[in-house]
Fold Thioester reductase (TE) domain-containing protein.
Amino acid sequence: MPPADALCSLCNSNSESYDQMHHMEHLIKQYSRSVPYTPGPHRTRPPTSSVLLTGSTGNVGSDFLALLLSDPNVTRIYALNRHSPDGPAPMRVAAQFRTKGLDVSALNSKKLVFIEGDTAKHELGLESNLYSEVSNKMAILIIS
């Protein structure tokens, strides 16, 4: 098993260097050799994508959100978060970005849509028209 701090340092880095991505790919190959692989249908990512990201207020979710915001191929990000007494999701995400040294101004992107819902409820607890929009446009789902 790789040291957790080695993986975390790659995930928490603000740098998008090729060397780090290459190192992460190497670690994945090294530690997944014994995992059986069954090829599925070949899928390609559309040139532009809409993403549904859950948990963007958390430690891992905020890193995913920062990466998605900087990706020009991502045209819409639906950030689905639970209601919290700690305040609205945009405020909690901004606090997480500040704590991690991420670019808080990126949260002003027009492609970012914060949604409050509940993954345990029917249609994520969203109004029907919003659920329909998200489900029709979403190409990628990231659960963090």
